[in-house]
Amino acid sequence: MLSVRDLTVSLGPATAPVDIVAGVSFELAKGEILGLVGESGCGKSMTSLAVMGLLPQPGPQIRAGRVLLEGSDVTQLQPWQRVEAGHGRMAMIFQEPMTSLNPVRRIGDQIAEAVRVHDRVSDAPATARARELLELVRMPDPAMQLSAYPHQLSGGQRQRIMIAIALACRPQVLIADEPTTALDVTIQVQVLGLLRELCNRLDMAMLFITHDMGVIAQLADRVSVMYAGRIVETADVAALFGRPRHHYTRGLMDCMPSRNFGARRLPTIAGQPPAPGTVGAGCVFASRCPAVREPCRTADPPRAEVSRGHEVLCAFPLDDGGPR
Amino acid sequence: MWSYSLKRAATTAVTLLAASVIIFAFIHIVPGDPIYVLLGDTATPDQIDALRHQLGLDQPIVLQYLTWIGHVTEGNLGRSIFFQAPVLSVIADGAETSALLATMTMIWVTLIGVPIGMIAAVRHGTWLDQGLSGAAMLMASIPTFWVGLYLILIFAAWLGWFPSSGYPSIFEGGIVNLRYLVLPSLALAAPNAALILRLTRASMLDVSREDYVRTARAKGIRPWQVVTRHILRNALLAVVSAFGFTFAALLSEAVVTETVFALPGIGRLVVQSILRRDYPVIQGVILVIVVVYLLVNLIVDLSYRLLDPRVELQ
User: Fold this and answer.
1) Where would you find the membrane-spanning parts of this chain (chain B) (predicted)?
2) Interface pTM, i.e. ipTM
3) Which end of chain B is more exposed for a tag (fewer CB within 10 A), N or C?
4) How far apart (Å, rounded) are the C-alpha atoms in residues A297 and A274?
């Protein structure tokens, strides 16, 4: 469905590029939910914007790699160009529901606008479809909400509107960039439930970006863990949480409060992630890795498939022969 | 909406009252006397005293103010000392020119400032943007009278397309007389259009970084639709409020423009009346200007409600 190969996004001049996303590859199958997890600044949002064709201009550029959607190359294409060319359909929802809707236009208009583009219909059927979409995202009183303005709605309701706008594009792939981070915990649960249900019902694949391992565990089928612009480990959810193979993934899990119930102090990963542009040869995690060995500092780690569908970017993965 | 309008009307009345005190006080503080202007150097002290008494200028200033403001509330702005005619009719004579000049100027400001600002924003960073922004900076920096003189030189003296000065009423010569106002309104519009241009550009660039613009792009609508449907209207919120200030600037710049183009407008009237110490006319004109200015700002505030649904008028 969606295939991203060696995607590299860089800032700065072409002569001295600073890679903020470095050779990211992943596959997203039909109806699958792939979680992309990592800490702030690891490049997960940039990855999603690059895939979607929404990198801010002027700003970071896709320097290398390809994005294939339904087999057609959509690298560097903005959403309107994909629509023009009749390629596969991809939509996106964002982190900030409070600022992601146009404050001076009615909800109905904002949804219908997307419907008109993708269904190529006139105003009346577009409004009817907008109403259906509001029902689909379970907005109470959809007919009323069509004429509401964003400031009259709560954060959770606005995120439902954002989902409705995304669904208006009839996406085969939905990219969700931290869609619940700005919401209350109870609302978060509702929105996650809704997204999961919509993926099943509409047979829609989703790339779900978050820094919250707990959310990933509930929602995703597979997970990719990102660190310093690279995907360091990819596996099925059960495999990753049951038996993490990368030392960074392991470190992230140790930080989860739910896994350390009753602990007075949560363990942390010592040190800071490297700043973009300071990454030299060797493993990007070497400076913080508890199991670092000498070759890690000089040689790039290999990408190895340690078991079926479980890839790790590490020369000496966890649990690899002998007790840890 | 109506209760808001009423509240605004009340505050407007208070502002007007304060303005009337300030106008009256300042004019009487200025040295000089209409008596000498009227009677000349050869007047005898008896003549001077008689005229002063006749005009009521021998009374205490507070009493003079109260008499004046009393008449104003009845709609009577007094009589011009110089013209020997009601102030209201003196102002009415100049009002036609000034109102048409202001209207034409605001039309130029809108037609030039907003679309070109929009183009500069859409093409920002390119040579086109730099050229337009640079030209705008230049126009904002050049004094109105200089622009006026060059417009006269090029379009009146060399090309002969437009008349260079004066303005016969459209009620006498028909609508074609508006051609007399083309050059003065352009001169007056130049610096203001430049400001609106730069403001439109800056405001559009600000808005284009908003999250909802990214949402609009994600929908797959074309770039120009993103601009017209999502960026422009939000950017205009900031521009609309600037129209109020622009109008205020217009009132003072009109004084110069009307002099350069010898237009029989309010601006020139106020300057001449100050030189003649024609107190009732000065007071009347400034009061009218204050009223117009307050009205324009009221309209600007009300139009906010139409542009931005978040604004609650209370």
Assistant:
1) 12-30, 99-122, 134-161, 181-199, 231-251, 281-300
2) 0.89
3) C
4) 13
